[in-house]
Design brief:
This protein is 32% helix and 12% strand. The chain has 130 residues and is α/β, with parallel strands linked by helices.
């Protein structure tokens, strides 16, 4: 176990929806030198900041010293105005930030198919874009 110091992420993954962060989450969870919480999208810095640092740290308990990479994959951090200052105030200067992007048309098409599967759209792609 790590000593008295708080264990918090040393990298964040952010980006718009439908850019592959779910796949990345599963891939990183299977790597022996990387820890990411079981749930993707903790949402501490945007939705749950008022719960406090102890709540956030609870996602990072029992990490051994031999795990060098500790991450938080919450794509929505990209779109919140409050998040950059909150991240800066909590996480150290050695934080690595990874932004996942995707070709805008491919991303829109992926989102379209998801919304159709969920029953939220009942039209073709060109009409949905309009």
């Amino acid at each position: 176990m790590r000593s008295n110091a708080m264990t918090l992420p040393n990298f964040l993954v952010i980006g718009p929806p439908r850019t592959g962060t779910t796949w990345l989450h599963y891939a990183l969870r299977s790597h022996p030198n990387i820890f990411v919480p079981e749930i993707k999208q903790v949402h501490y810095f945007d939705r749950h900041f008022e719960r406090g640092i102890t709540w956030y740290e609870s996602f990072y308990q029992n990490i051994t010293e031999d795990i060098p990479f500790i991450g938080d994959i919450t794509p929505d951090y990209l779109t919140s105005e409050e998040v950059p200052q909150r991240i800066h105030s909590i996480l150290n200067d050695n934080l690595q930030l990874f932004v996942i992007i995707r070709h805008p048309v491919d991303r829109a098409l992926s989102d379209f198919h998801l919304l159709r599967r969920q029953g939220q759209l009942n039209c073709d792609f060109s009409r949905a874009v309009k």
